[in-house]
Amino acid sequence: MPSRYSTTPRRIRQFALCALLALPFVSSADEGRQADWRERQQRAEAMRSEARARQEAAARRLDEANAGCADKFLVNACRAAAQNEYLGALREARRIDAEGRAMQRAVVAERLAERDREIAARPAPDDAELASRAAANSARRDADEERIAAAKARKERQAEAGARRKAAEAEKLRRKQAEDAARRSRRQLVQP
Predict the structure, then answer these.
(1) CA–CA separation, 53 vs 43, rounded Å?
(2) Separation between Cα atoms, residue 52 and residue 94, nearest integer Å
(3) Closest to 108 measured CA to CA, from 100, 52, 46, 28
(4) Are 93 and 51 in contact (CB under 8 A)?
(5) pLDDT value, residue 14
(6) CA 134, CA 122: separation in Å to the nearest integer?
(7) What is the full per-residue pLDDT of the chain (192 aa) written as tens digits?
(8) How far apart, in whole angstroms, are the C-alpha atoms of residue 39 and residue 110?
(9) Are 53 and 90 in contact (CB under 8 A)?
(10) What are the backbone angles phi and psi of residue 35, rounded to the nearest 5°?
(11) Nearest to 103 by CA among 160, 55, 50, 42
(12) What is the DSSP string of the chain?
């Protein structure tokens, strides 16, 4: 029984023709969505930067008001009023920042949903394609294992050669030291 997603030449031609006919409409709609997303992202960034500017301005006004309150008769009442004004400005700045962040999250969510729709719209791979991918992966895995085994064998041979060379050098050193010791003992016997 043929698969629902059979890739007969006729189906491939039909799919290609539909894709070519729909391409101008998809691209213009996609460009419109991309432009909308960019514009909303920029507007959200502008809102967030405005919120930061408002927070900084409110902090400066609070510092100035606290400095001015030192000369007044009711210092604590003046400072409390300045603090209340600061908190009101801070709440407004945080509200604007939250709106900007919400707008950014909405844009990201829409982009992810669009990507998910595109992935879902792709035709499912047929059994033959999956089998060929599996065979290719298996062949690549086998080749990797052979390469690793060859490298391991080469390193073992190098280690054995190094051990033999080290043993030969140690033997040569031992012989040289023995000859030097014998020569020194002969010299001591010759010298009274």
Answers:
(1) 15
(2) 9
(3) 100
(4) yes
(5) 56
(6) 20
(7) 444 444 455 555 555 555 545 544 445 667 888 898 899 999 999 999 999 999 999 999 999 998 998 888 888 999 999 999 999 999 999 999 999 999 999 999 999 999 999 888 887 777 788 888 889 999 999 999 999 999 999 999 999 999 999 999 999 999 999 999 988 888 887 766
(8) 14
(9) no
(10) -65, -40
(11) 42
(12) ---TT---HHHHHHHHHHHHHHHHHHHHHHHHHHHHHHHHHHHHHHHHHHHHHHHHHHHHHHHHHHHHHTTSSSHHHHHHHHHHHHHHHHHHHHHHHHHHHHHHHHHHHHHHHHHHHHHHHSPPPPHHHHHHHHHHHHHHHHHHHHHHHHHHHHHHHHHHHHHHHHHHHHHHHHHHHHHHHHHHHHHHHH--
- d(Cα 38, Cα 109) in Å, to the nearest integer? 14
Tokens of 143: 């080749």
pLDDT of residue 15: 55
Contacts of 36 (CB under 8 A, 6+ apart): none
| Alpha-carbon distances, residue 150 vs 155, 158, 164 (angstroms) | 9, 12, 21
